[in-house]
Amino acid sequence: MSEPASQPPRRGRPGYDQETVLRRAVELFNRQGYDGTSMGDLAKELGFTKSAIYHHVDSKSHLLEQALDVALDELTAVIEAARDMSGGTAYLRLRTAVRQSVEVLVAQQPAVTLLLRVRGNSPVELEALRRRRWIDAQLAELVQAAVDEGALRADVAPDLVSRLLFGMVNSLVEWYRPDGVVDATVLSDAITTIAFDGLNAP
Asked: Which ranges does the entry annotate as DNA-binding region (predicted)?
């Protein structure tokens, strides 16, 4: 009988998979600031020795890139899905994008929090900012399309509307708590209603 195929070595300390390592790193970055967190701090947080941390983590910047990609990939998917919706009005596509952006923030709050604190201090952060600008531009296009079809008021610039909409969504990182009294579905309903009732064309 042939020997069973050997399994590839599992990275990370026993009891830690890569997802858990990333989650703990993001928590630490949010607590101390990315620039204020050293690899020694991360090793201590994970229970590794300082010399052993590089056997488990490629680099601090790689962890940052992974964390930012979690938020950016999901937000990008929301915008692309809304933009490519068939059979719906631009107004409906825009409402859908805002609603689902709230859902992403609730589901990935630590990663989105980290994304919102990026200032462009490294190539990884500059790329994240580039992707955020693309999302902003796509949302502004959805706003303009909704204005053009007469569903939204035309006296506020679309790029300003998109910034205000995302500003409302992004403010959730400051006060929303997953274990709090506000249900995520209720929250997304409330934000969408408040935002769009005030933007509807008279």
From this structure: 38-57
What domain range is 129 assigned to? Answer: 66-197
Same domain, 114 and 146: yes
Q: The pTM is what?
A: 0.83
What tens digit of pLDDT does each residue of 94-107 get? 999 999 999 999 99
Residues 98 and 159 in one domain: yes
8 A C-beta contact, residue 184 and residue 192: no
How many CA atoms does the CB half-sphere of 6 hold within 13 Å?
Answer: 3
User: Where do we find the tokens 């959805």?
Assistant: 142
Q: Phi and psi of 152, rounded to 5°? A: -120, 150
- Give the CA-trace dihedral at 55, 59, 60, 66, to 10 degrees: -100
